[in-house]
Amino acid sequence: MKKLNPEKLFVEFRAGVTNTEPIIGRKYTLTHSDITAELFLTIGIEYAFDKITKMRDEVLAEWRMCNGYPYLHVYVYVDGRSGTTKTAIRDTIFRRELPLALEAIRYGDRKFFLAHPELDDAPIGIHFDSENPYYNRFENWGTPKKYK
């Protein structure tokens, strides 16, 4: 697993969020540059659709409730722009890079986690979205403290 280089992570807070609020509905849009290896984390009450490219290689995450408990719902679009022809390759890449993405979210919003330490133990559920049933999955990926 690649380790996060904090110098290559750029965080933007949009209207409606602070370093500590809100919890439920707090959304993360993580994009990157293949050229510079920089990561761009946007935190808001809406996803940063203006940052999403045709490649559809972003990671989207949102704090939600399930049975009265918060969890981090993460979404990746495995099929991508080319449809299902490259789904297996994209699935492999997402699985390889997701630990780094989760570390970037955890680090980039670290003041939020300091204000809400109980969220470090909240489950992370990842939806791998695909038209192919083999790749269309929802998986538990531990808790945010695993990615500290």
Number of strands: 7
Basic shape:
globular
CATH architecture: 3-Layer(aba) Sandwich
What is the element string, with H for helices and E for strands? EEEEEHHEE
Separation of termini? 13 Å
Mind explaining what this structure looks like?
The protein has 148 residues and is of the alpha/beta class. The protein has one domain (6-147): Severin (3-Layer(aba) Sandwich). It has helices spanning 87-108, 110-115, and strands at 9-13, 27-32, 39-44, 59-66, 69-77, 124-129, 137-140. A 7-stranded mixed β-sheet has the order 1-3-2-4-5-6-7, covered by helices on one side. Strand 2 (27-32) and strand 3 (39-44) form a beta hairpin. It is globular, with a radius of gyration of 15 Å. 27% of the residues are buried. The mean pLDDT is 94.
Itemize the secondary structure elements and their pairings.
Elements: E1 9-13, E2 27-32, E3 39-44, E4 59-66, E5 69-77, H1 87-108, H2 110-115, E6 124-129, E7 137-140
